[in-house]
Amino acid sequence: MSKGLLLFFSTTLLVSCVKDKSIVVTQIEGFPPDIMGCSCYYAVDEAHFQKQQFIYIDSYETTPAYISINDSLIAIDPKNEQKSEYTLDVEIEEEIQLDQERYHREGTLKITNKNRAVYSTSIYGECGC
After folding, report:
1. Are 103 and 125 in contact (CB under 8 A)?
2. What is the pTM of this model?
3. Comparing C-alpha atoms, which of 64, 7, 56 is closest to residue 28?
4. Which domain covers residue 71, as residue numbers?
5. Buried b (16+ CB within 10 A) or exposed e, 12-51
6. How many domains does the chain have?
7. Is residue 7 in a domain?
């Protein structure tokens, strides 16, 4: 019986020492200053998009891209060529041309941190100049 209790408490103690590995993605307030001209900007859905509550912004799929983690704006390489705490995977599943220079896009955004925690969400947005 005492071995069982010791094992239980040891396991409980070990689990309680593990840090929270979740990724808390927050909304980006406005456009970062170095995003000018052509850009892509995505929200989690149409309602958030209409309110300009974006979770991902880039310079038309070039560096830098921006995400916000715990209300902290983070510049990141969208192609994952530079070392970073986070890697991105943007999968576009639907693209509709709205006018000569603007496209509506829907798909999935996946953010993975170096601890292998994953945040995945649908995205709704536009790319254009």
Report:
1. no
2. 0.80
3. 56
4. 21-128
5. eeeeeeeeeeebebeebeeebeebeeebbbbbbeeebbee
6. 1
7. no
